[in-house]
Design goal:
This protein has 157 residues and is an alpha/beta fold. It has a single domain, classed as Mannitol-specific EII, Chain A (3-Layer(aba) Sandwich), CATH 3.40.930. Helices cover 42% and strands 22% of the residues. It has 6 helices and 6 strands, in the order H-E-H-H-E-E-E-E-E-H-H-H. Strands 1, 2, 3, 4, 5 and 6 form a 6-stranded mixed beta sheet that branches. Strand 2 and strand 3 form a beta hairpin. The longest helix is centred in the first third of the chain and has 16 residues. The radius of gyration is 14 Å and the shape is globular.
Length: 157
Amino acid sequence: MQIGDLLDRNAIALRVSAPNKRQALALIAEIAARNFGLDAGDVLDALAEREQAGSTGVGHGVAAPHARLAGLNRLRGVFVRLDHAVEFESVDDQPVDLIFALFAPKDSTGVEHLRALARVSRILRQSQLRQQLRQARTADAIHALLVQDPVNNSTAA
């Protein structure tokens, strides 16, 4: 499972504002709805339901919200970089500004979904990559950073 298989350039938003976690999730829901042909309300409901089970804030300013949705035929992703970090009830109590949301088909087994979550988490644990994502100026630059081979992240510009 490669990040490039999940994340289209059109599903990347940077320099966006959200005053709180709920609004950040609503923004992700709108991007997912627009790019994947889904209902934004349904996406937001699924994300909010998952957050009620426990925060998806994984630390270091990163969150990986995820949900299963009817209407998808494969795993899809949305990446958002917020202008200002928001409280996300993260494991390290740090606010979040980098959000990589994953969406799986409602009837998927979950194994592929878990592998994708693990991969996103592994990639975003790299401090240098997080810094590069925070400094990137375009969606294309963010896409390039996220899809590169993790072994080469230390040499990426």
